[in-house]
Sequence to fold (507 residues):
Amino acid sequence: MNLLFDRLFASNQGSGIFLSFSEQNKPITYDKFLNEIKCMASRLKILGLEKGDRLVLQIEKSHHVFTIYGACVQLGIIFIPLNTNYTAVEVEYFIKDSECGSFITTTKMLKDLVSQDKKVSCKIETIDADYTGSFFSDFDENEPLEIIEKQNEDDIAAILYTSGTTGRSKGAMLSQKNLLSNALTLSDSWGFTASDVLLHALPIYHTHGLFVATNIALASGSQIRFLRKFDEDDIIANLPYSTVMMGVPTFYTRLLANRKFNKEITKNMRLFISGSAPLLKETHEKFQYLTGHKILERYGMTETNMITSNPYNGERKAGTVGLALEDVKVRVVALECEKEVSKNGGIGVVEVKGPNVFNGYWKQSGKTKSEFRDDGYFITGDMGFLDKDSYLTIVGRNKDLIITGGLNVYPKEIETVIDTDSKVEESAVIGVSHPDFGEGIVAIIVEKKGHKIDHKVLHATLQKNLATFKLPKKIHIIKELPRNTMGKVQKNVLRDMYEDEFRKINK
Fold:
């Protein structure tokens, strides 16, 4: 038995469309998709890959990512997708750390590895954006491979490397059970059926675009309308032919800024989903006013897939990431005493337990042990609180907690007040070294286009709504906040930018 392959790939047969394209490419039916997977499996066998081997993939977004993923599941090969923005130095680390049997990449990355004299011991094949490359040599001669390797539910299906913002990236091992349970739970929770058309503009090296969006579509037999990347004009052109869209906050803010985006465009849609970073309350309100749709926010991470979601049927609370999924347990634990805090405002570390939670970090048993409680709960490192109705609100990362003068300050609380200023586009609050207070609070603000913040008004608002120890000691206006490829604000970059902010005080 191979539960993941049987349920997501082999169960969808027939002439129904799996992938449609905004470009001139012909649609791919479920039958054709399954046949391509089996041909891919044959090719992987020729490369010498066996059950339990690791395959690292770093190519531009294409449907080949889906078929290689499916072929890996079929053969019990551990699938490792990489961010296409990783450099040769980073790629060398991932190849060595994973001890992979094969690396499939672009011609450009191969040249970069060679030019920088990076030593890799695995086989390397190429797939380029125009669907050419060494991987496809004699590919048409491959016969579909019918062998399906037996897999237990706890066998590792994929490894996703974390972003590595606090050091070397760690490989999160995701089992068949982790991926399948989350796909089935979310498909049911969000009301997916075979009649849905999912507009897919997300990258597919990340859990959001691959293991959430794609797996849900496969679990429900839905169609995916496939876009190579996010472009608001392409999104607008494809929304009338779609029923669901998954995105990050940047998607929605850019759509709202586009004059072509209106209610008529979205009349065929039943659901807009957002994740990977919090949505501003203003974005929620503007989107609902313009389209009549209330965006559904959810919460997850690399190690756990999805954890919570606002309900499809029920109250969607702006600013929260919703309720724990049906088969997932969530609790909030105080930093100081490691005891569960009371609901309705008590802030602590979010911990999670369920079939969605990963098996541990690749080759890092010590790190794995330190991230789990004795009762099996995974310590996410995210800070948050549960309201009286059990809706979860994320206020930041544990490492983002600011301790100033011995007092704990949560950046989200300050950001929320700053963002009430009508001239503020967005904000980020950080703590940096301070000679007297340990950490000093710094607010970094992006002004709305064509507006200029009145600092006196802003200071008055902050003083009215925040305790004195929470007030920023410095405020900076910049053009845009640094973000990673998933739209998350990179506070580590901001901390590096302003690390010397208060060091001159004692000089």
